[in-house]
Design a protein that fits this description.
mainly alpha, Arc Repressor Mutant, subunit A, three-stranded antiparallel sheet
């Protein structure tokens, strides 16, 4: 579709370029914050899919992250080498692979939570006129996640 025909809001602003820019900026901010922990962007989200010492099925982690199970498997390969995660078979269904965070992985998770909390605090400390409208973001996230799940 030609640029002239793209949908615009009343001020002539396009939504997609701004969303892409926000996404890119957030990813870079997270990358800088996580680098000192030797954690990559994406791995942080992986850690936060775990609440405690429970084991989770690869398919469940993939669904929570909106990625394919093969992506989770590759991530676990990396995290196993660092001693942060381990695989095991499900006693009830031997076809199912479960993932568990190790004690070192639980410590990494705690550090990731600290990074997320710190970044969120700084973003929410912006002047009132620059604050993020969280309910709008939540609705947009829900809409985009639904559309993406239909494509997978």
């Amino acid at each position: 579709m030609p640029i002239e025909q793209r949908r615009q809001d009343s001020a002539g602003v396009h939504l997609v370029p701004h969303l892409l820019s926000v996404s890119k900026s957030m990813r870079q901010l997270m990358q800088f914050a996580l680098a000192e922990l030797d954690i990559s962007v994406g791995q942080d989200s992986f850690f936060l899919t775990f609440q405690g010492k429970e084991a989770r099925a690869v398919i469940d982690v993939a669904a929570a992250l909106s990625v394919r199970p093969s992506t989770v498997s590759k991530m676990v390969d990396i995290l196993e080498k660092k001693g942060w995660a381990e695989r095991q078979r499900d006693d009830q269904d031997l076809r199912k692979v479960l993932i568990r965070l190790t004690p070192k992985g639980m410590e990494a998770r705690r550090k990731v939570l600290g990074v997320w909390d710190d970044l969120e605090s700084r973003l929410l400390a912006a002047p009132k006129e620059d604050r993020i409208d969280l309910p709008v973001l939540q609705r947009l996230d829900k809409t985009l996640t639904k559309r993406l799940s239909r494509l997978r």
